[in-house]
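Replication initiator protein, Arcicella aurantiaca. C-alpha cells?
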Amino acid sequence: MKKLKKDKLDNNQTIKKDTDVVKLIRKANRLVEGKYRFDIWEMRVFTKMLMKIHRDDEDFKVYRIYLHEVIQDFELQEDGHSYKFLKQGAERLGRREIRVLMDTPDGKMELFTHIATGVKSFVEEKTAKYLDISFHPDMKPYLLQLQSQFLMYDVRNILKLQSSFSIRIYELLKQYETIGKRTLKVQELKEMLDVVDKYPLYGNFKQRVIVKAQEDLEKFTDIKFTFDEVKSGRAVTGLVFWIIPNREKQDSGNLLYLPEVASTIVEDTDQEISQLLTLTQRWEGVSKTVVEQWRNVYGFETVLAQIKKTNKQISEGKKIHNPMGFVVWSLQNPEITGNVAEPVSKIETPVKEEPKYTSKQINFYWNGEFANWFVIYLQNLAINCEKVLYHKKVDELRATYSEKLFNNLFMFNDGSVNEESLNSSVGIKLLETEQKSKENIFQEWFWNKFQVRILQQRSGDWKAQ
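C-alpha cells:
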C-alpha cells in the first residue's frame, strides 16, 4: 500500500501515481450529510462535475462533460444510447433539490436549493460528444475553498459502484474512518438518502440499501463495514456501523490511501485530540469523546505514551484483541504496567490501611461480588472484541453444542438472541484464546478494589499479602 505525502497534492487535486492520474473529490461534511437522492446517471454527472473543480477555484465555472470520459471512467459500454442517458441524467440533476444544514450568526438554518443549473446539450444525440453544466451558486460554501470539516477521497473508490445509495453510504462512513464507528438512527439515515417514502419498511431498506452497500464497498472500495441493529422493543431504530480498512483493496495498489489528508470530523483546533485519534484510528470503539476523557483524566503525555506503547506491541506481534480496553486497563493500573504517571484529575480518596482478610472473607468476594463483576467483564470483553473474532467464537460455540442445546442456551422462545448469555460465553472463549486464567483476573480485581495482593494456596484458600 502506497501512502501519499502532502507535497504531492497539487492545486488541481490531481496526483500522479505511477502511470495513472488520480482525482480526489472534496466536499463539505454538511453536503455529505445533506438530504437528497440521485439516480445512478445523476450521480455520474455530479461526480464528473466534482472532478473538474480545482482546489483554488473561487467561483464555479461551466463544466464540460465529455461522453467518452464518462464511458471510460465508469467502465460503461457504448450502446448508442449513452448520450441520451447522460443528457437525461444532467437534466434531472438540474431539477434536483437538496436540503443542507448551514451555520449562521443566529443559529443553524436549513438551505433548500437546486444543485445544478444551466444544462446545455445537443439536439442530435447520435453525433453528440459533450454537454455543459454548472453548479448552483448556493452550493459554493460546500464545494469551494474548503479549509476544514470536509471529506476527500480517491474518486476511483466509487466509479464502479452501480448504486447511488452505496456511494452515499461510502461517503457517510468514510467521514468516520479514523474513528472506526458511526451510529445513525434509521429515520435519520432514511432522511439523508431521501427514501422515507421509498422504503417505509425496515426489512426492505436493510436489504436494498444497507446490505447492498455492504457488498459493494467490500468488493470495490478502500473500506468495508459490519453493522449492528439497535432496537426499541422489536423495532430496529438505529444502526451501529463498524468501519474496517479494506486491506485487500488498499494493498492492491489500485486505490490510493490518504491517511495524511483523509477527512476527519475533528477540527484542527485541538491538535492533541487529533494526534490521539490518528494513532488509534484502527481501534474499534475509540471516539473523540473517549480520547478526550483519557487526556482530561491522565494527561496528554501519559495517554500518548501508552497508545504508542500499545501500537508498538501490536506491530511486534503481540495479540491484543481489544487495544482500547488494554489502554484503559494500563492507565488504571500504573503499578502493574509500569505506567508511573498518576492521573492529573484523579479523585482524591482516603488512604486505607492495609486490611487483613481471612480466607472466608476472601472467598466471599470470589463467589459473590467478584462473580457478579466477572460476568459483566466477560460480556464487555465480547462486545468490545473485533467483530470477525466475535463471530468466530460464536461459530465455535455452535460447533460445541447441538443446535437444540445452543438454541436453549442462547436464544429466547421468540427467536431473538439472548445477548447477555451469548456474550458471557463468547467472553469465556476469548479468555481461553488469551490464556488468561480467572484466578489471575481475580487477583488483579482484588488489587484494584482493596490495594491488597492475594495468593492462592495449594489448599485452594486465599490469603492477603
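The chain has 20 helices and 13 strands.
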